[in-house]
């Protein structure tokens, strides 16, 4: 039972030894340990503040990036819209120009056709007149080769004139 319950003297000597070790530790180790802990605590606080600042900066950068992305999208949409409008205008101008050119070509073709038609009709009329004169001349020479046929033709013309 003596091993389980120590004597008063042992407890006193152990307490004295503990206090002496405590005083030695306080004199030589406690201040450096506490100084190192305070330094470490300061570093940890500074690191936490730096991390919070970095987090705040990252949030700000993220917000700035989102704003810039939004602005870039708006600018892109505007440029695409302008480009589409210009392309449509160019297409419309090309259509109009093509239409004008086609109308001019059609009008020129009609004028050429009309001119050639008139020329052809004039040639046909001249040819018909020439052929008619030749036929009439041949018929008259053939029919009026003698006096009797000439008199008959004159009488016939006179009867037609009187009838009309």
Fold and architecture overview:
This protein is mainly α. The chain has two helices and no strands. The radius of gyration is 64 Å and the shape is rod-shaped.
Quick overview of this protein structure:
This protein is an all-alpha fold and 164 residues long. It has 2 helices and no strands. The protein is rod-shaped and about 195 Å long.
Helix content: over 70%
Average of the residue pLDDT scores: 87
N/C terminus separation: 179 Å
Structural class: mainly alpha
Strand content bin: under 5%
SSE map:
Layout (H helix, E strand, L loop, with lengths): L7 H136 L3 H17 L1
Task: From the structure above, extract its key features.
164 residues; mainly alpha; rod-shaped
């Amino acid at each position: 039972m003596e091993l389980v319950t120590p004597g008063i003297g042992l407890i006193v000597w152990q307490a004295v030894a503990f206090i002496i070790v405590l005083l030695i530790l306080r004199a030589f180790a406690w201040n450096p340990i506490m100084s190192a802990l305070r330094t470490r605590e300061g570093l940890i606080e500074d690191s936490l503040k730096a991390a919070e600042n970095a987090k705040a900066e990252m949030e700000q950068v993220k917000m700035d990036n989102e704003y810039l992305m939004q602005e870039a999208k708006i600018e892109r949409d505007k440029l695409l819209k302008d480009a589409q409008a210009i392309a449509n205008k160019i297409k419309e101008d090309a259509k109009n120009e093509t239409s004008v050119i086609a109308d001019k070509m059609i009008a020129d073709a009609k004028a050429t056709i009309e001119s050639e038609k008139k020329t052809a009709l004039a040639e046909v009329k001249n040819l018909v007149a020439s052929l008619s004169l030749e036929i009439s001349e041949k018929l008259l020479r053939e029919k009026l080769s003698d006096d009797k046929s000439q008199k008959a033709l004159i009488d016939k013309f006179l009867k037609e004139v009187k009838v009309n």
